[in-house]
Every structure is written in C-alpha cells, then in structure tokens.
Amino acid sequence: MRTVQVELGDRSYPIYIGPSLLPETGSYLEKHGLTKKSTHLIVTDEQVAARHLDTLKQSLESQGYTAVVSIVKSGETSKSLAVYEEVMTTAIQGGLDRSSAVLALGGGVVGDLAGFVAATYMRGVKFVQIPTTILAHDSSVGGKVAVNHRLAKNMIGAFHQPELVLYDMDTLQTLPAREVSAGLAEMVKHGLIRDAEFAGWCRDHASELLSLDREALAYGLERGCSIKANVVSADEREGGLRAILNLGHTIGHAIEAVGGYGEFLHGEAISIGMAGSAMLAVKLGRDASIYPETVSMLKALKLPVVLPEHLPTDELIAAMKHDKKFTEGTMVFIVPDRIGEVSIVKDIPEALVREVIEELRRKEPEHV
Amino acid sequence: MRTVQVELGDRSYPIYIGPSLLPETGSYLEKHGLTKKSTHLIVTDEQVAARHLDTLKQSLESQGYTAVVSIVKSGETSKSLAVYEEVMTTAIQGGLDRSSAVLALGGGVVGDLAGFVAATYMRGVKFVQIPTTILAHDSSVGGKVAVNHRLAKNMIGAFHQPELVLYDMDTLQTLPAREVSAGLAEMVKHGLIRDAEFAGWCRDHASELLSLDREALAYGLERGCSIKANVVSADEREGGLRAILNLGHTIGHAIEAVGGYGEFLHGEAISIGMAGSAMLAVKLGRDASIYPETVSMLKALKLPVVLPEHLPTDELIAAMKHDKKFTEGTMVFIVPDRIGEVSIVKDIPEALVREVIEELRRKEPEHV
Ligand SMILES: NC(=O)c1ccc[n+]([C@@H]2O[C@H](COP(=O)([O-])OP(=O)(O)OC[C@H]3O[C@@H](n4cnc5c(N)ncnc54)[C@H](O)[C@@H]3O)[C@@H](O)[C@H]2O)c1
Ligand SMILES: NC(=O)c1ccc[n+]([C@@H]2O[C@H](COP(=O)([O-])OP(=O)(O)OC[C@H]3O[C@@H](n4cnc5c(N)ncnc54)[C@H](O)[C@@H]3O)[C@@H](O)[C@H]2O)c1
Ligand SMILES: [Zn+2]
Ligand SMILES: [Zn+2]
C-alpha cells in the first residue's frame, strides 16, 4: 500500500492507495477516530452502487458502524441543488448529528456532491472519500467541493478537506475504457505542469495504464496525487499557485459548456484544452516542440486533441468570458513554458485565443 | 460611533455601531478594500427594501461601486434552498466574480441567507452585514450562516465571517414594536450568560430600549455584541464554550417548531425558554431567586414568559429530541448558576424537562 500525505496544517490527511482497501473501510474509519455512536451517510451513484456498495456496507457493519445510504443517478446531472437537497433529506431523516461523517463512494461527481453536503450539513461534518474513478485522484485532493448551478458549473461550493481518502484500485477494474482515458488526462496534466519525467512516464506506460495494470496504476495515482497535494499545500484556497492546476481547463470548460455537458467527458475536454494551451505557448514564442510533445502524450492515452467542427468559435469564446477564472474582466491562461513547467499568463488577447481555437479544428496535427 | 472588534485571528472584523452609517456605506467599503472593478450583490427583503434600500444604493453609487440587488420576501420562509438558488441566479447573472462581495441589508433572515450565499458562491466570497433589526446584533457576530431544510431549521449552513458589520441605529427606528422586544431577548440573554450587571442594566433601561432611545440602544448593542464576540473568539466553531449562547434555545426552538414558525418570533420563543432554564436551574438546586429575577427582566422588556396551553408537552419533547444540539443522543441544557453565569449540563433527565414544561404553562408566576 502507498500513502500520500496531503499537508495542510491541522487539516492534513492521508490518501491510502492500494488493492483490497474497500473491505477494510470499517477499520480505517476506526483508526481515524470516527464515532460508532452516530449514524453516518454513504453517498454513491447507481453504477457504483451496483458494483461496490455491498462491500462497503459489509465492512462498516462488521466494525459496528451504522450508515444510511443515498444513491443518486450516475452522471453530472446529480451535481445539482435538487439532488443536494435530497441527500440532505436522507441525512436529516437518518438522524446524522455533528459527529457523523459523509462517505463518498464514487467518482468526481459523487465526491463533489457528497463533499458539499459534508461541508454544509449542520455547518460542516466529517468527510471521507472513497474514489472509484481515475479522475477522482484529482478531485480527492484539495478539498474543492461543489454542485452546479443551471447557469454555470461548480458555481456553488466550498473548501472542505476530507479526514482520509481510501483509494481502492480494485474498484477501478470495473471502469469503462472511455472513463479510464478521461481520468488519465488529469494524471498526465499533473506531469505537464510540474514533472516532465512523470509526463514522459505516462506516455511510456500508456498501454499498462489503459489496461489498468495495478503496478502502473498505483505509481501513476501516487505521483498524480502527490503533485496535486504539493500545489494545494502551497495554496489551499486558490490565491495564486493553485491556478496552474487549471492547465487546459479554460478551453476545456468552454468545450463542455458549448457541447452541452454529456457530449464530452471532462477529461476529454481538457485534453483538447491542453493541446490548445500547448499551441498557445508556441504562438507566444515558447519552444515549438511543446505542441507536438504534448499532443503525442495525450494521443498515447487515447485522448482527443482536435476540436470538433460543430462547436462555434464565438460560442466557445463567449463561454470562456463567463468562466469564473476571469477575475475582474482579465483573461488568464495557464501556458506551458516547457513540458513539466507552466506560467500563469494574464491579459492574453482574445484574437490569439480565437486563432488557437480555429487551428485546433484541423483534423490532425501534421507534424506529430 | 462605537466599534466592537471581533477577534478571530486573520478573520477578525469590526462592528461599527452608530447613527448615520448607512449613507456612508460606500466609504466603509472603500476603507475595507472592496474592489470597484467587480459587481457586488445586495440581498435584502421587501420590508427593508421599501425603507432603506435607496439610501444604500445611493451611497454605493456615489463612491463608484456597482451592485445588483436581490429582494426576497420578508420572513423566515426566505431562509430556504429555493430562495438561496434564486439569489445565486441573480449573482451569476450579475456577473459577480471572486473579488465580489455579498451585502446583507436586513435582519437575521437576510443575514443568514446572504451569508450562506457569500460562503458558497464560487466557494466563498466576501460578506458584509448591514443589520436593520435589534436581533441582528446577535446574528452579525460569530459567522454562523444558514438556510432551513423543510425538516429542520438552520440545518444547512457554514461558518463564514464578514469583512465588517455596519450597524446603523437609525434603521432601527422603523422596526415594529414586537420585533424590538424580540430582539431585546437576545440582548438580555447576553447579560444572563456572562454579565449580571448588563442584565440588570437592560431591566433598568427597558423603557428607553423599548422606545428606541439612541443612547440606550448604542450601549445595549455594543455590550451585546461584545459579550457574544468574546464567547465566539474563544470558540469560533462551537466546540465547547460557544454552546452557552444557546441559553433558552432548546425549549425555544421546540416552541418555534411546534408553534409552526410564525406564531412566535424567535426572541419570544427563547424568552419563554430562558424562563424555563431558570426554572430548571432552581429544580437542580440553584438559588431560588434565579427564576423570579430572570422573569422580571424578561417581563420588563415586554417578553412572554408563559408557555401557551395549545403546545402539547409530548410534541415539545419530541421536537427537542430532534434538535441538533443533542450530540450522540445525550440531552444537553444550558443552566444558569446565578444571573450572569451559566453551565453546560449534560444528561438532564427527560422527566425533569417535562416537569418544567408543565409548570411553564401556569398563567403567571405567583411570586414575581
Ligand atoms: N473537486 C475537484 O477538485 C475536481 C477535480 C476534477 C474534477 N472534478 C469533478 O469530477 C467530476 C468528474 O468525475 P468523474 O470523471 O469521476 O465522473 P463520475 O463520478 O460521473 O464517474 C464517471 C462515470 O463512471 C461511473 N463509475 C464510477 N466509478 C465506477 C466504477 N468503479 N466502475 C464502473 N463505473 C464507475 C459513474 O457512475 C459515472 O457514470 C466532474 O463533475 C468534475 O467537475 C472535481
Ligand atoms: N446567525 C446567527 O448567529 C443567528 C443568531 C440569531 C438568530 N438568527 C436568525 O435570525 C433570524 C431572525 O432574525 P430577525 O429577528 O432579525 O428576523 P427578520 O430578518 O425576519 O426581521 C424581522 C422582520 O422585521 C422586518 N424588518 C427588518 N428590519 C426592519 C426595519 N429596519 N424596519 C422595518 N422592518 C424591518 C423584516 O422584514 C421582517 O419582517 C432567524 O432566522 C434566526 O435563525 C441567526
Ligand atoms: Zn479537471
Ligand atoms: Zn437566538
């Protein structure tokens, strides 16, 4: 088993990564001092519940824990205020009190939703993440929790750090292939922003990662979590450095918004976005190899790098302007300086972004 | 002008109390570094908007601030997730960003609602309180913000401290008499838990307070805020000491719940609750004078001290059991040791609480 410690002062917590952890959840909760006198809440989605809920429930029961369960529909639509209210109802009816914990069993959707419930139930109770997707190696570090408003994603939320994260790699074996690739997009992103060697390792071990080889996965998840944890430790509440985690996300979020969430998975959208940021870097005078290098890494992980024709440039630009990463009207981009290093660049001219978007539509980068 | 500083490390903030502050809001925002580049949000209710919104808007405009406004219905029903979502919509449509602030112009309802919006819009933006009720001297100290779930009051919320509180006593002149009394209940409560002299002062100056005499109000609000600020500084997130602020609230919340919010104002309900706690204290062996003393203070402020016949004891007890102040099934009460001092007493037997409730129904305490 590998452990990544997220250092955040008195909000520090461990991420346990390994096989066969889910059946041990009860013992881990005990080790971390969760009370057995209060009822806890498990939040999960239909897909995950069908595969892994029984194991979790049995583990809790065997250690003398009591929990009520809220099963939400799978997919981004569950990150809504309506579903949030339903989960709150289950918590209240289940009699959760201030010593209770909310356990998120699932991917980023369940993690974000359950985390926001934990952050706001009785003004905040304990939170435990049990991620079941690769993408969730990202969402389980940093304490960002949120639901969507119908007008904008992740608009309603909080910072709420978990007590512990229990990452059982065995649960990943049931993930659909497209979700695997999408999750690896955030993994290679962590290499692209802070660790060139790790980015290269992701490309070189792409086939092991895609086939969910446990050795490769364990290392990849550990490095991915560690890199994110370092960034978050330096800037818990996104005052500065933490923005580098948004590499590819400005264009990515616009693609998700204009595509109407559902067409693209988050990881796919930010993959195209990372290709775009690499292209922007070259246009801003960085080394010309950044773009083909980035694209080759993404393609190795079976991720898209070309923007589909049917997303109009004007709509993408408009979506970017609404993106909450624009503070006080200034347009900010995370731009690679080289593979493994990025800068936060302000005042990027709109015309240049348009140019990048147009070029991102070319069927295939010739020179890759 | 009087200033109470709430000491909470890097979340410390001042409460300015005085006449003629509302027209100076723009200058205060400037002094506290609020940006003029972003749009801000004013949340207020219909009653308050009719009387004081124009003054606030003019003050902001005159200093070059831009704000959108969300006017909610007056009353407790606006502390709901549905209204919360509406206010969020106004914030998003108004283009609020991470540098924006949410300004609460109103009483405790608007403060709690707007504060929860501020705590969760884009994971937290700045918050400014502009209280317009006497009760809000309580709600503007301590950072508790919340909305109600249909099953339980204040169940959904956060801790989110304001940047500053601007308490313009002139706005209080338009308060209905019943709201004045209800607000004074929390004021005298602050005396009853920590400052016998202040509790006595409230009784002795009851007629000035009830007639909104500015000198008396200024002193009362300052002492009330100071006492609460001291308690909150010692225990920001309600781990221990802060519970003493709940004097009268266990019975009070039950009265509100069973009476079906609307029959009793919060201050009226806790007034009966404080009479009940004093009675409980005597039954637990404290000095017999505690009860008549407490009752005389409350009556001087035109507050109720007798429980109406139509609230069944069983329902009140059931409501108390659902009250979130019961951690892990134990029944906790704040019990006066003498006027100006209280203890947190655990394991109060249900039978004793029933006895108190029955006696609280007697038309009038004979010996007062
Ligand atoms: N909080 C953060 O810091 C952060 C970071 C990145 C992404 N996110 C959020 O994460 C969300 C995306 O997360 P996600 O990609 O994990 O999505 P997800 O949670 O929707 O999971 C993807 C799909 O896989 C299914 N699934 C999950 N685990 C499975 C398993 N083990 N076996 C079979 N099926 C399984 C789910 O039911 C769902 O249909 C987005 O809402 C995004 O905003 C948050
Ligand atoms: N956050 C906390 O720490 C805390 C503490 C105590 C109470 N509270 C909450 O505060 C709420 C009660 O606050 P409240 O008593 O101020 O209620 P309120 O905000 O509903 O105000 C009472 C009534 O007076 C009206 N009003 C307000 N200011 C006025 C003015 N200047 N002139 C004329 N009318 C005016 C309002 O429209 C409303 O109808 C409850 O929801 C309670 O839970 C919170
Ligand atoms: Zn992402
Ligand atoms: Zn109160």
Automatic annotation (TrEMBL), chains A, B:
CDD domains, sorted: DHQS
Function summary: Catalyzes the conversion of 3-deoxy-D-arabino-heptulosonate 7-phosphate (DAHP) to dehydroquinate (DHQ).
Protein name (Swiss-Prot/TrEMBL): 3-dehydroquinate synthase
Alphabetical list of SUPFAM superfamilies matching this protein: Dehydroquinate synthase-like
Upper taxonomic lineage: Bacteria, Bacillati, Bacillota, Bacilli, Bacillales
Native source species: Paenibacillus rhizosphaerae
Positions of the 3-dehydroquinate synthase C-terminal domain: 183-325
GO BP annotation list: amino acid biosynthetic process; aromatic amino acid family biosynthetic process; chorismate biosynthetic process
Pathway: Metabolic intermediate biosynthesis; chorismate biosynthesis; chorismate from D-erythrose 4-phosphate and phosphoenolpyruvate: step 2/7
Reaction(s) this enzyme catalyzes, per UniProt: 7-phospho-2-dehydro-3-deoxy-D-arabino-heptonate = 3-dehydroquinate + phosphate
Matches recorded under InterPro entries: Dehydroquinate_synthase, DHQ_synth_AroB, DHQ_synth_fam, DHQS/DOIS_N, DHQS_C
